[in-house]
Amino acid sequence: MLFFERKNMKAFPTAAVALLIAAWPVPIATCEESEAQRAFEKAYFKENAERDLAGALKEYRLIIEKHEDERTTVAKAWLRIGLCLEKLGKKEEAVEALSRALSAYKDVAAIREEAQAALKRLKGVAQEEVKVKKTSSAQILAALDKKVSIEVVEATLSDVTHIMSELGGVNIVADQRLADEDDSGGIMVSLSVSDIDLKSALKLVTSLKGLAWDVMHGAILVSRPEYIAEYRTLEWFGDGREGADESVQAILKTLRSRTLSADFQDTPIQVVMRYLWSVSELNFILVPAEGTSKIPDSMVTIKVVDSTLETALRLILMPHNLEYRVEDEIVKISARKKALGPGLMNSPDGRAGGGAKPPDGKDRTHLAEAVSMGLEWLAAHQGADGMWSSSGFNANCRAAKCGGEGDKESDLGVTGLATLAFLGRGMTHKDGAYAGVVSKALMAMMLKQDTDGCIGMRTGAGRWIYGHSICALALAECTGLTGDEGMIRNAAQKAVDFLAVCQNPGKGWRYGVKPGDNDSSCTAWAVMAMKSASIAGLKVPSGALDSARAWYESVTDSETGSAGYMTRGDSGARPAERVNYPPQEAMTAASVFCRILCGEAVDAPQILLGAKRISRCLPEYNVKERKIDMYYWYFGTLAMSSLGGKQWESWASAMKAALIPSQIRMACARGSWDPECVWGISGGRVYSTALCTLMCEVLARTVQGK
Asked: Which among 556, 529, 558 has a CA at the least distance from the CA of 544?
């Protein structure tokens, strides 16, 4: 393997030679190199850096003449002779050299695969799909059961993960983004453990530093929880999508079939791209991001072992906010125009004017922990059928029951909310630690969809519209996050089409299909589903959102900005058992957020009046005075984060003070929130935990203002 020090980067040719040699699967000794190895480095540099094929051929032949006792180096020389001759168009001579390499040195693994592929190519035989050994998540996690002893004092995080990689035989990567944030050179770790499993050592390091780890692209990535969530949302150009031309598909095939092992330490991205070219013969170039003139300039520190080129490329680019595109037979590397958020509805793309600032380090850590615990609890209490049961979730408790049941009528709605919590963290059915959880939930929703597109049974005097709208939102979110073109997209489209059928002409939604009356609560969930569907590229009827906006305007007091539930001035509904809970500003918050989604300017008079009213009714976790209204808090968080500024800062501060201390941290209920809120009696602990997790995700997310 290859190690670089920053000081070595001053002499580019020397570094380039050493880096190119790292392409070979057999490690090259970093000390006491033999004369044959040094000669091979010289020849390889002539071939790939100087493009002097004639000179390289001469050097390779000298190696064969002088060093026949070093079989591996000689075998590689024969392989390179064949490839050089191929580049020069001397097909017959190339076949002869490659055949010689295979017949005389078939036991040398370093050349066998590439020589066989080259011969098939030269002889006009269609190249077979190269069998790539892919390391599954289960295999990686199993490797972490190995017992290790580690002792380091004030070592960088990247050094520690490098040691762990060597001990475990798996790729463990420290996010370079962490070092880039710290002028001192990165996170420093001191650790002394003896004979413990590698997984425990990894958990110890990450917990001490407020970090997290997750299996991603055939490696374990160590980073901040919110960064890991962000990386999971990234889409890469041309990933097998229909319509990609043959040249794109050919390049993707090469990226997915070539394997490599390399160890970069503070290596310029330009050198890394040259190395990738040397092992794949694909053209890699660095280009400015659209609308800028800046070429990416990063130092790469990462180790990959027996990875596909595609996997290595993603691991190299992610921590540096870079992306790749395949165009004009070139792999183009550029800076991402923006970091993607974990969910569409909770990202700037889902709003008219996201202006919230990111939380500081301590708050970010606390919120990330809250989200992680919330998702863990939800995952542990999902039913075998993929649903979450408001009243029956206790059947999944490990020991003492969590308590806090709701009513069965809310099952579909809380299933949609729980699914949204995972999607809000970037966890989809395609990727992530909870892919199985999300997959089962999505399938459960789709199995309950009828031929009209309605999700769930039409019972409960039309109140089924809540469950349908929330599930439609979840399906639309998943479609947008994954780019799904199959049954999820189809189910989402059918659900949105049915919502359109249910809308009252020129107004909003209430219970059932075109019931004639409207309410601001039902309308809010329908609007979010419609907006998310629009962002995801689904068909949304023209005028649907305009009509919803007109409804909210009709129930909003022009002098105070307060929005009503069914008429201007009413305070909204309450469950019969909790009529003594004081009314808050839930409908005002829903109105402000939905009017922004429907296209109203964030500085419109009614929006500002509504925000002012919300800011006078800040969240307070007060059980005694019955002030807990998570429904209001959820819409208030979405509304105020859309506006940003001091009002948002005050709201966010109050929300953190309400949510973080009230999360349960013991026994089976760890990670959940008690359903002490107004509607907790209906949705139960699943409802309160899903909503609070969603709110923590919004609070934890970095949102750039316009």
From this structure: 529
Helix (H, G, I), strand (E, B) or coil at 165: helix
Contacts of 706 (CB under 8 A, 6+ apart): 348, 353, 354, 355
| Distance from C-alpha of 385 to C-alpha of 415, rounded to nearest angstrom | 11
Q: At 545, phi and psi to the nearest 5?
A: -75, -35
b/e string for 522-560 if b means 16 or more Cβ within 10 A? bbbbbbbbbbbbbbbebebeeebbebbbebbeebbbeee
In the block, residue with structure tokens 């209001």: 632
**Cα pseudo-dihedral 494, 496, 500, 501, rounded to 10:** 30
Residue 393 DSSP label: G
The answer to which of 201-210, 221-230, 665-674 has the lowest mean pLDDT is 221-230
689 contacts 376 by C-beta, under 8 angstroms: no
Q: What is the 3-state secondary structure (H, E, C) of 4-23?
A: CCHHHHHCHHHHHHHHHHCC
How many other CB atoms sit within 10 Å of the CB of residue 621?
A: 20
Of how many residues is the chain composed?
Answer: 706
Find residue 147's DSSP bridge partners.
197
496 and 530 in contact (C-beta within 8 Å)?
A: yes
Q: Which two tokens stand for residue 569?
A: 């001035």
Q: What is the pTM of this model?
A: 0.56
Residues 6+ apart with CB under 8 A from 421: 374, 375, 378, 689, 690, 693, 694, 697
Percent helix, strand and coil across the chain, each rounded to 5? Answer: 50, 10, 40
- Beta strands in 347-499, from DSSP E residues, in sequence order: none
Q: Which two tokens stand for residue 201?
A: 């050592």
Q: Which residues pair with 556 in a beta bridge?
A: 563
Angle (CA) 469 704 344, round 5°: 20
User: For tokens 């006491």, what's the residue?
Assistant: 32
Per residue, the 3-state secondary structure of 491-519, as one string, reads HHHHHHHHHHHHCCCCCCCCCCCCCCCCC
C-alpha distances in Å from residue 36, one per residue of 39, 61, 69: 5, 12, 10
Give the mean pLDDT of 391-416: 90
The four Cα atoms 279, 281, 282, 283 give a dihedral, to 10 degrees, of 110
- Tell me the C-alpha distance between 558 and 591, whole Å: 13
pLDDT at 123: 66
A 10 A CB-CB count for 10 gives 8
The two tokens of residue 518 are 């409207």
Which of these, 583, 640, 638, lies nearest to 611 by C-alpha position?
640
Q: Taking the alpha carbons of 500, 503, 508, 513 in that order, is the dihedral positive or negative?
A: negative
Tell me if residue 203 falls in helix, strand or coil.
Answer: helix
User: Scanning the structure block, which residue is given the tokens 């907006």?
Assistant: 531
Q: Of all helices (H) and strands (E), which one includes residue 168?
A: helix 157-168
Q: At residue 437, does pLDDT exceed 50?
A: yes
The 10s digit of each residue's pLDDT in 441-486 is 999 999 999 999 999 999 878 899 999 999 999 999 999 888 877 8
3-state secondary structure of 190: strand
Distance, in Å, from the CA atom of 563 to the CA atom of 521, rounded to the nearest integer, reads 11
Burial 640-657 (b: 16+ CB within 10 A, else e): bbbbbeebbeebbebbbe
Going by their DSSP bridges, the two strands 322-327 and 330-335 should be labelled as antiparallel
Residue 335 CA to residue 288 CA, distance in Å, equals 7
| Residue whose entry in the numeric block shows the structure tokens 């699943």 | 686
CB 414 within 8 A of CB 684: yes
Q: Which stretch of DSSP H or E encloses residue 150?
A: strand 147-156
- Report the alpha-carbon distance of residue 206 to residue 533 in Å, rounded: 37
Instruction: Compute the distance between CA of residue 190 and CA of residue 499 in angstroms, rounded to an integer.
Output: 57
Under 8 Å between Cβ of 520 and 587? yes
